[in-house]
From TrEMBL:
PROSITE patterns: AA_TRNA_LIGASE_II (PS50862), TGS (PS51880). It holds the Pfam family HGTP_anticodon. It comes from the Bacteria. Binds 1 zinc ion per subunit. HAMAP family: Thr_tRNA_synth. Belongs to the class-II aminoacyl-tRNA synthetase family. One of its GO terms (molecular function) is metal ion binding. Its main location: cytoplasm. Its cofactor is Zn(2+). Residues 1-61 form the TGS domain. Keywords: Aminoacyl-tRNA synthetase, ATP-binding, Cytoplasm, Ligase, Metal-binding, Nucleotide-binding, Protein biosynthesis, RNA-binding, tRNA-binding, Zinc. It comes from Segatella maculosa OT 289. This is Threonine--tRNA ligase.
């Protein structure tokens, strides 16, 4: 017999060899119908995998993140099976599950091209195969047998993967119908659960992400256990297109990109710069009670700085290549992180225990080389500005300082109505310690510090193994926007390692030397990503205190341009941000264009307004309309801003 412990702590006894499905059946038939995979001792496995020893178990439905991953992993294999039937001779690369669905990288045979025109027939073939309810069968194979099998099928990319990446004794395959793939799993027990299919896009992707290798065809898709779920997802996709920050940012003239400046290098336009500066000032106001000291550090640093910090060894491939100067052996790097610079700020003079906590903040712009195919608007760029800070503390101050930063991040979320969020404790992978620096004792201490801080704050946080930074664990905050998409924003990290690498010290009360602990934190994460998420969360309808243009003044015709400028001057003097639209266009066109720019208020001026010194107000979206004096309108705007700012305190 084996003892099975459930997430609620309850324990049941089953015969050795029991499966996740049998355990689900023992609880309820409804659960057994809906469960798609299970977690055994923290590892997600198939429902028919035997359990031969005492274990903790979790049963995953499609609604669970682990369940979706299993479902979409099998769907990637179903896509490949369909492609194998539709395109004889096609070769397969990698086909993982992703956050929303899955993709497969393939190399069609000579003369074959897969385009959007083929989506319908691929979907039909996938549904045809799914209806056969083919069992998905796992098999452990030797390296030699795997090479022999995939060579016989002419799968050159699979053979390269086996030869270069896989070790004997760790290789398994999964077979459904006539399709077999290299895979570690987990998978559904059969394809019959897949009831709705949508191929979403096709793109190019270099084999192994190497621009020097051949370009493959990447096919994206998503599947669901019910057609209704797919229908709801497609509605969400349409709403996501409407809210796309790249589209709205262009309409509102917030930011731009230029190929001549460089891919992934955003340029903040005047209106976007106003927005960004207001966000910075908001955060500064939040930090004032904590006595942060703001610094400005260079956009480059000597290579040795990042060798000392460990960033060169761990992030060198993701950074821009070193910059060589005319001096022999002199190398610099574009700054990928602010923390090494802040360590140097700490080290500039002796520190005492009385100086701690020492809080060093910077809106620091950093540079990281992202592959061209992964760049996406402001959410994935090569240059971005972090609302960064590094706090140097004594060991006994770690928890209190960590809790204070939780408070700051949650206050930011409340201010912007990010009410749906979850916290994730990102831990080191104990099976892959080479990716990290520092001793086991240091990691255990820092990970427990985060757990205790979350417990003290009453913050529920799930744990993710392998998601820590190379120098320490972290608490990441995942925000769901207005249409349910998840974004990683704020982060707090505990770091016992970088201070030691930089030989940072402080003098203790008994005159001894001690190494401080370093806390990294960024409430926004980066100004670029935060702005992108805020645009999509609000669909560009920012609160009045934040929006770049609060009012657009629209003269009915050129005859009233002079009066419109008087209105602008009056509003400017009253502290209202306004813009005049004095184009020679019909008033209907001006209204439509400024609606598109999400200007909260429009004032329309014509003969009556000019004669009586009035403005006709029109609220965004065609809501409230009224006529009033310039003074009354300016007061209304300022009162509304004051009321909004009061709620932020």
């Amino acid at each position: 017999m084996v003892k099975i412990t459930f997430p609620d702590g309850s324990v049941r006894t089953y015969e050795q060899g029991v499966t996740g499905l049998q355990i689900a059946e023992s609880i309820s038939p409804a659960l057994a119908r809906n469960v798609v995979s299970c977690g055994v001792n923290g590892e997600t496995v198939e429902l028919n995998r035997p359990i031969n020893e005492d274990a903790t178990i979790a049963l995953y439905k499609f609604e669970d993140e682990e369940g979706k991953h299993t479902f979409w992993h099998t769907s990637a294999h179903l896509l490949a099976e369909a492609l194998q039937e539709l395109y004889p001779g096609i070769q397969f690369g990698f086909g993982p599950a992703i956050e929303n669905g899955f993709f497969y990288d393939v190399m069609p045979a000579e003369g074959q091209v897969i385009s959007e025109n083929d989506f319908a027939k691929i979907e039909a073939k996938m549904l045809e195969l799914a209806k056969k309810d083919e069992p998905v069968v796992r098999r452990d194979v030797s390296k030699a047998d795997a090479l022999k099998e995939f060579e016989a099928d002419g799968q050159a990319y699979k053979c390269e993967h086996i030869a270069q990446d896989l070790e004997d004794g760790t290789i398994s395959t999964y077979t459904q119908g006539r399709f077999t793939d290299l895979c570690r799993g987990p998978h559904l027990m059969s394809t019959g659960l897949i009831k709705a299919v949508k191929i979403t896009s096709v793109a190019g992707a270099f084999w192994r992400g190497d621009a020097k290798r051949e370009q493959m065809t990447r096919i994206y898709g998503i599947t669901f256990p019910k057609k209704k779920m797919l229908d709801e997802y497609l509605v969400m996709l349409e709403e996501a297109k409407r809210r796309d920050h790249r589209k709205i940012g262009k309409e509102m003239e917030l930011f731009m990109f230029s190929d001549r400046v460089g891919k992934g290098l955003p340029i903040w336009l005047p209106k976007g710069t106003q927005l960004r500066l207001r966000l910075q000032e908001l955060l500064r106001s939040l930090l004032r009670p904590y006595h942060y000291q703001e610094v400005i550090t260079p956009g480059i640093g000597g290579k040795s700085l990042y060798v000392t910090s460990g960033h060169y060894a761990h992030y060198g491939k993701d950074a821009f290549q070193p910059i060589h100067t005319p001096e022999e052996d002199e190398e610099y790097m574009l700054k990928p992180m602010n923390c090494p610079h802040h360590c140097e700020v700490y080290a500039r003079k002796p520190r005492s225990y009385k100086d701690l906590p020492l809080r060093i903040a910077e809106f620091g712009t950093v540079f990281r080389y992202e592959k061209s195919g992964e760049l996406h608007g402001l959410t994935r760029v090569r240059s971005f500005t972090q609302d960064d800070a590094h706090i140097f503390v004594r060991s006994d101050q770690v928890r209190a300082e960590f809790e204070a930063n939780i408070d700051i991040i949650l206050k930011v979320f409340k201010m912007f109505h990010f009410d749906n969020y979850e916290a994730q404790i990102s831990l080191r992978d104990p099976k892959d310690k080479e990716k990290y620096i520092g001793s086991d004792e240091v990691w255990e201490e820092s990970q427990n510090a985060i757990r205790e801080a979350c417990k003290e704050k009453g913050l529920t946080a799930h744990e993710e193994i392998g998601e820590a930074a190379f120098y320490g664990p972290k608490l990441d905050f995942m925000v769901k926007d207005a249409i349910g998409r998840k974004w990683q924003l704020g982060t707090i990290q505990v770091d016992y390692n970088l201070p030691a690498r930089f030989k940072l010290e402080y003098t203790t009360e008994d005159n001894a030397k001690q190494t401080p602990v370093m806390i990294h934190r960024a409430p926004f994460g980066s100004l670029e990503r935060f702005t992108a998420v805020l645009i999509e969360h609000t669909a560009g309808h920012f609160p009045l205190w934040l929006t770049p243009d609060q009012v657009a003044v629209l003269p009915i015709s050129e005859k009233y341009n002079d009066y419109a400028r008087r209105v602008v001057d009056h509003l400017d003097a009253a502290g209202v941000r306004c813009v005049i639209d004095d184009r020679n266009e019909k008033i209907g066109r001006k209204i439509r264009d400024n609606e598109l720019k999400r200007v909260p208020y429009m004032v329309i001026v014509g003969e009556k307004e000019a004669a009586e010194g009035l403005v006709s107000m029109r609220k965004q979206g065609g809501g409230e309309q009224a006529t009033m004096t310039m003074e009354a309108f300016a007061k209304r705007i300022n009162d509304e801003v004051a009321e909004q700012l009061k709620t932020l305190d």
